[in-house]
Amino acid sequence: MQKLEVFGAKKLKGQINISGSKNASLPILAATLLSKNQITLRNLPKVKDIETMMNLLDSLGSNIKKAKDKIIINNSYQKKTFASYNLVKTMRAGILVLGPLLAKFGNAKVSLPGGCAIGTRPVDIHLDALSKLGVKYKIIQGYVHATAPKGLIGNKIRFSKISVGATENLIIAASFAKGSTYLSNIAIEAEIKDLINFLKSMGCNIKWTGKRSVKIEGVSEVEDITYPVMFDRIEAGTYLIAAAVTEGNLKIKNIIPKIIQTEINILKKIGAKINIKKDEVHIVGNKKIKSINIKTAPYPGFPTDLQAQMMVLLCKANKQSVIKEDIFENRFMHVAELNRMGAQILIKGNKAIVQGNINFAPAELMATDLRASVSLVLAALTAKGKSVINRIYHLDRGYENIEKKLKRVGAKIRRVN
């Protein structure tokens, strides 16, 4: 099994080009199932979750051709409606094929999803909403058996809780439902806006009716298009924090800064010097890091996917900080590993109390989920000596060429078998 060896205490300097968004690519890939013809996607990140989703589409009958900077998906012969556990078990986003399969064929058998062990992420919100479009379902031996006897029929649906995945599934499904669908209390992450832009480019009829509400007029077919996926805002935020924690000097390129304004504002508050241009952010880390209290929240709040990385930075702050995790109930699994490196973090319910003025010590570490993995890399970058990070397959699910990108800006890091 592969490991990362990190030799720390290096200030990162240079330029990092941000890859396409994993979290935007996954629902867009699922939505290509609506097409009976050809869709070309550009700027997909080369990460494990994308490979898994493409394998899932292939198993459903999509024909996928990979080129250097694009993939071409042809669904002329796509007729299968069974999504196997073997393909869905490592990735939560597998459930996103349920909506388009029901929209296109009126039936689907999809495995309940797997992925990181960061919380329950129940699919009941997806299923309850789909049932309001006329879907009947049973869960048998870990599979959702779903049918829409009269096809999908538009309805008014208010989500009981803001859910990114359920919002995505319903927007895709409702695009082919008969009549009008009104969705309210939806998630408004940038990745969802990218999905909507993709669907509209194909000819779907979706209009914003409020900050968290859309109206969708169903269509019966979509057009062939070429579409570039947005940048990965979590990758961008991770490298911004990497610059801050190593007192580095980085230019983060190929981004839209206003999409990560919340993260930029917080980094400014704690002392980082930031200069914003059209498609880049230039950040210089400060030796003196100010403490701050933050809580994770749905977009445009502070993202749960950057909570672990921010915790590493706050271990370096001048005083105690508090992080409140309001999205997932089990997202502090990195804390035990950080404490082994010398951090002093106390968990009380959904709050992490983070003592500042910490110098991380090198250690052998175990990754537990995608974002926890990268938080250990950040901590190791500041520790004098060699740290070893095990189970980095989690890392490969969401970060393209992480060790190569870090090497280019001065990190001493290598992958070993």
Q: What's the layout of helices and strands?
A:
Elements: E1 3-7, E2 13-17, H1 22-31, E3 38-42, H2 48-59, E4 63-66, E5 70-74, E6 82-83, H3 85-88, H4 98-105, E7 107-111, H5 124-131, E8 136-140, E9 143-147, E10 156-158, H6 164-174, E11 180-184, H7 190-202, E12 205-210, E13 213-217, E14 225-228, H8 233-245, E15 249-253, H9 261-269, E16 273-276, E17 280-284, E18 293-295, H10 307-314, E19 321-324, H11 335-340, E20 345-348, E21 351-354, E22 364-366, H12 370-382, E23 386-390, H13 393-396, H14 402-408, E24 412-416
Parallel strand pairs: 2-15, 3-14, 6-7, 10-11, 18-19, 22-23
Antiparallel strand pairs: 1-23, 1-24, 3-5, 4-5, 7-9, 8-9, 11-13, 12-13, 15-17, 16-17, 19-21, 20-21
Helix pairs in contact: 1-2, 1-7, 4-6, 5-6, 6-7, 8-10, 8-12, 10-12
Describe the protein:
The protein is an alpha/beta fold. Helix content is 30%, strand content 25%. The chain folds into two domains: 3-18 and 231-416, Alpha-beta prism (UDP-n-acetylglucosamine1-carboxyvinyl-transferase, Chain), CATH 3.65.10; 22-228, UDP-n-acetylglucosamine1-carboxyvinyl-transferase, Chain. The protein has 14 helices and 24 strands. Strand 8 (136-140) and strand 9 form a beta hairpin. Helix 4 packs parallel to helix 6 (164-174) and helix 10 packs parallel to helix 12 (370-382).
Summarize it.
With 417 residues, this protein is of the alpha/beta class. The protein has 14 helices and 24 strands.
